[in-house]
Amino acid sequence: MSERPALPETVGDEAELEELLSRPSERVVETMARLEGDVIVLGVGGKMGPTLARMARRASDAAGVSRRVIGVSRFSTPGLEARLGAHGVETIRCDLLSRKQLGELPEVPNVVYMAGMKFGATDQEPLTWAMNVYLPGMVCEKFHNSRIVAFSTGNVYGMVRAESGGSRESDPPRPDGDYAMSCLGRERIFAHFSETLGIPVAIVRLNYANEPRYGVLVDVGQRVAAGEPVDLTMGYFNAIWQGDANAMILSLFGHLESPPLVVNVTGAERLRVRDVAEQFGGLYEKPVEFRGGEAPDALLSNAERAFRLVGRPQVGPGQMIRWIGDWLRRGGPTLNKPTHFEVRDGKF
What we know:
With 348 residues, this protein is of the alpha/beta class. The protein contains twelve helices and 15 strands. Helix 2 packs across helix 3. The longest helix has 21 residues.
């Protein structure tokens, strides 16, 4: 296997960024080499879907495996279908909540389930529960002969003390608000169908994937650059480079179980908002303003189980901050989608 290119000092443009985010690790290539059959990504149109699907395509090609990688979405973002197609990812337009359209999707043995609703959940609770709980049941019925890696969130745990080391998979869930409760509902539905239909499943409790266009680090960096005060109330968080998250998630196809494997995916470090803001301030040579004080608890996860199974992240927080700081300083495009990581009442 050829050696992976070294990480760049800076990320020049979106083409370079998406190449980096979709660059497969050796473990992903090995997983795709062993995996039998095609891969379908449900909800490919979100923030992570395009680069995850492209990574699956690149890893399959590197492994010398001929397979279809199919991305499914309503494709509301102009040009996304064409960009995916240019990189060998097939696309299908589908409203997944339409039982007819869902039923017409091809039978595919490997499913990445990324569909869901977070932002706007507080004002659209019925749709939130339909997307996050009802749809997973429909998907399990449709793909009852498949293997499924299903996205969830660390929000299902609730907050823990900052010095705790983060929530572990064995901890009881304590969801706060409709979003977190509906995500726990999604997990319960996948667990039910995994047990009753024998579907091998991994449930991924993801905390804060980051890249220069989106993420908690972008939120903090933008505030520092604009001279706006940084809120310290949610004083700590976890973060992971989106490319590392993509690689860890695809590698979980080698570890599916029934009942499902539940695994936290996030970075190894507990990051302090104050420290991160001051690092951005150093990059921008600007003073940093703060407001509020650090609460004793925060939304934090421990990802040691994932590290044992699929390896540790390759990009650390310092590298992420340097890339993101440089990107924002040069006026690189962002998705203009704040994470609202500072929310403490579960209302998104």
